[in-house]
Amino acid sequence: MSLFGTNTGFGSGGTGVFGTTTTDSHNPMKDVEVTSPPDDSISCLAFSPPTMPGNFLIGGSWANDVRCWEVQDNGQTVPKAQQMHTGPVLDVCWSDDGSKVFTASCDKTAKMWDLNSNQTIQIAQHEGPIRTIHWIKAPNYSCVMTGSWDKTLKFWDTRSPNPMMSLQMPERCYCADVVYPMAVVATAERGLIVYQLENQPSEFRRIESPLKHQHRCVAIFKDKQSKPTGFALGSIEGRVAIHYINPPNPAKDNFTFKCHRSNGTNTATPQDIYAVNAISFHPVHGTLATVGSDGRFSFWDKDARTKLKTSEQLDQPITACCFNNNGNIFAYASSYDWSKGHEYYNPQKKNYIFLRNAAEELKPRNKK
Amino acid sequence: MAECDAEWELCKENIQPLRQGRSVSALHQALCQQQEGNHTALNQQKQAFESELRLYDGDDPLDVWFRYIKWTKQTYPQGGKESNLSLLLERAVTRFTADKKYHNDVRYIELWIDFAEGSPEPMDVYRYMQAQGIGTMQAALYIAWSEEYEKRGNIKMADSVFQDGIKCGAEPVEKLQVFHRALQARACRQMMTSMTDQQNDDDDDDEDEGSSEPQRSSLAELKAKGKKKPVVPINRANASIGYARGLQFKQPLGPKQNSRLMIFDENKVPESEPQEPKFEIWTAPPTARAKENEQKPEKWTNVKMPLKSRSGLSVAVPPPKPSFQPFVEEDDQPPAVTPCKINPAVNSVLSARKPCRPEQTPLKMLQERQQMMQLQTQEDGKIREQSMYCKELLFSGATEFCFEELRAERYRQKWARKLQTQSSAADDEKPVESSEK
């Protein structure tokens, strides 16, 4: 069920307003450009859950705003609404019924955005910027989990100003993911903690990092029975680790692979290594997408341990990505990720969000 | 505060003494904070310093480091891993090694001396400093250096260090002279007492004697056996073994062999011999970390098996790890929680130290910097990798930053400045009405 129809649909062009094919490399993959993208770097993207009809995309940015677009079946994007924080937005997520959006910001607060009424209220407060936010739906409770640079992980019932629970972490939270009943948090100084969420959240295990460099992004994957069974962890130096929680044979089942590096086979020039900015798993196929500072995205099959595709290089890093609920659309954002510091920041440069048909390209290599 | 008073008494042996003494109020506050587990304010302050380190663009970067380290010493009286003090010192000293303007800056010297005292080989550090011209015009260097010699019982060298300092015209000269005289006085006293003790020595057997004397004579006795030289526990009795208490070590100057081989150090050759020639090789400061059970970091650790180069050289890289598999427990959960004062957030207190990343050793860092300055020359046949992100910015302080933290910090500062200009503009224009945007 492809959302974009034939190849000659909106997929072609992806050009500027004037309809001419642009020669600059801002969209070498000729994917659909989302209209009215944010004015500053996009930090996070999230598609609406399956409980809601249609596809709605939420994007948070360093311009302190969160925007919502409707993605129609013909590929057109319609900006729907926008909300503001008093600081850059670092993470967004949806509630399981698709009626609320949660946003986390550098202003140390998290807000709940009711899309029907277009109102927001603050639901969380930390001592430092909130880096991650996830909705947890358990059989006996529901809450929002926020991970912050103040080294705490807090759980919020949206009706109360005080957290239901607060867990101390050894270091600042850098990235997290939740697939009930498992949550993974990767912290500074290469910390890695797995939490179990049944009954109430508690720390399950601290894992020695499979990577040698700073943790940057993490995503949980599921097994054939749709139970979370492991996670993919990306670092700042072009490497992703696939780690199972309870594998039959850890040495063989867990592995790492290099990605987002340049001129792999040419040994005369040094190999450039880029940060992996985000990882997303395809909801149906279980294959994964990684996006990096080098301005490329890649699709991988972790079971066959092969690369499925690598894109052309965009002229900016790709900072965020996500799949929609049925895996037909892959969204990725092209904007500056601050990987080279303040000097390489050009506020004039436009930021983009692209949508790509993901139905075919992410099919696994060998169907077992 | 009464509680905190008691607290200080309870743990005073854990508090590392500072050369310039500790402010009592700061000490109380630090201990109270640790007691209550109030880490938030500490974290925020630390984060503020870390940000300042990275975003500073003024003329005096040393100032930020100095203030940060000073704060750390006051706030973490016990030192320890949580404070990152040794790491900070290491980074601070290596960062400015090439910067001539700081070479005789009092603050910089103080950092170097702290660094030396915390390192396993202070003598190497002092020699390096002298070779590089760091602190050679400051009395502090010579004082600390001669103190080190004195701790090891080498009065002769301690004396000559002072003479060096005076010869170089180190400032302030009076201070040097005062300390020098004190040293000489102590040396005389030692000789007198040791001469009387020598007579007692001949009578006694090689047993623990020491009850009549306040010195730790038991160690000195052992050396006569020839088995073990008195390993002077320098680091344990750090600042208390000072110039003021030089008597604590009985070092008979009689038999020549004893005075020379005071300290048995398996890693080091007796110092009196190759002093001069060693100056050549001190092009890079020695590693500072006094870690146990750690293999010495080698340059080859992070290099994969190199391909055969064009010239046909194939270097055999020594394997960085032992050939057997050390036993690792399957279960890597933290130990069962017993009620203890250690904050769970600082669980890492008892964890095994991971081998430090090669990038972090001062030797490697200095070399990396030299490489960058010389416009990296191609090395033979090695696959070189280049990280395409701002490593310096991320890793310059004691802890790492991620891109977002860097950016958020810059955003925060920009916003703070904006607010400040707004409020001052509002004040200028409308003094009566106070408006806050």
Automatic annotation (TrEMBL), chain A:
<dbReference type="Pfam" id="PF00400">
    <property type="entry name" value="WD40"/>
</dbReference>
<keyword id="KW-0131">Cell cycle</keyword>
<dbReference type="InterPro" id="IPR001680">
    <property type="entry name" value="WD40_rpt"/>
</dbReference>
<keyword id="KW-0677">Repeat</keyword>
<dbReference type="InterPro" id="IPR036322">
    <property type="entry name" value="WD40_repeat_dom_sf"/>
</dbReference>
<dbReference type="GO" id="GO:0051301">
    <property type="term" value="P:cell division"/>
</dbReference>
<dbReference type="GO" id="GO:0000922">
    <property type="term" value="C:spindle pole"/>
</dbReference>
<keyword id="KW-0963">Cytoplasm</keyword>
<keyword id="KW-0132">Cell division</keyword>
<keyword id="KW-0498">Mitosis</keyword>
<comment type="similarity">
    <text>Belongs to the WD repeat rae1 family.</text>
</comment>
<dbReference type="InterPro" id="IPR019775">
    <property type="entry name" value="WD40_repeat_CS"/>
</dbReference>
<dbReference type="GO" id="GO:0005635">
    <property type="term" value="C:nuclear envelope"/>
</dbReference>
<feature type="repeat" description="WD">
    <location>
        <begin position="82"/>
        <end position="123"/>
    </location>
</feature>
<protein>
    <recommendedName>
        <fullName>Rae1 protein homolog</fullName>
    </recommendedName>
</protein>
<keyword id="KW-0813">Transport</keyword>
<feature type="repeat" description="WD">
    <location>
        <begin position="123"/>
        <end position="166"/>
    </location>
</feature>
<keyword id="KW-0539">Nucleus</keyword>
<dbReference type="InterPro" id="IPR015943">
    <property type="entry name" value="WD40/YVTN_repeat-like_dom_sf"/>
</dbReference>
<dbReference type="InterPro" id="IPR020472">
    <property type="entry name" value="WD40_PAC1"/>
</dbReference>
<feature type="repeat" description="WD">
    <location>
        <begin position="276"/>
        <end position="310"/>
    </location>
</feature>
<keyword id="KW-0853">WD repeat</keyword>
Automatic annotation (TrEMBL), chain B:
<feature type="domain" description="BUB1 N-terminal">
    <location>
        <begin position="49"/>
        <end position="205"/>
    </location>
</feature>
<protein>
    <recommendedName>
        <fullName>BUB1 N-terminal domain-containing protein</fullName>
    </recommendedName>
</protein>
<feature type="compositionally biased region" description="Acidic residues">
    <location>
        <begin position="199"/>
        <end position="211"/>
    </location>
</feature>
<feature type="region of interest" description="Disordered">
    <location>
        <begin position="417"/>
        <end position="437"/>
    </location>
</feature>
<dbReference type="InterPro" id="IPR015661">
    <property type="entry name" value="Bub1/Mad3"/>
</dbReference>
<feature type="compositionally biased region" description="Basic and acidic residues">
    <location>
        <begin position="289"/>
        <end position="301"/>
    </location>
</feature>
<feature type="region of interest" description="Disordered">
    <location>
        <begin position="192"/>
        <end position="231"/>
    </location>
</feature>
<feature type="region of interest" description="Disordered">
    <location>
        <begin position="288"/>
        <end position="338"/>
    </location>
</feature>
<dbReference type="GO" id="GO:0007094">
    <property type="term" value="P:mitotic spindle assembly checkpoint signaling"/>
</dbReference>
<dbReference type="InterPro" id="IPR013212">
    <property type="entry name" value="Mad3/Bub1_I"/>
</dbReference>
<dbReference type="GO" id="GO:0005634">
    <property type="term" value="C:nucleus"/>
</dbReference>
<dbReference type="GO" id="GO:0004672">
    <property type="term" value="F:protein kinase activity"/>
</dbReference>
<feature type="compositionally biased region" description="Basic and acidic residues">
    <location>
        <begin position="427"/>
        <end position="437"/>
    </location>
</feature>
<dbReference type="GO" id="GO:0051754">
    <property type="term" value="P:meiotic sister chromatid cohesion, centromeric"/>
</dbReference>
<dbReference type="Pfam" id="PF08311">
    <property type="entry name" value="Mad3_BUB1_I"/>
</dbReference>
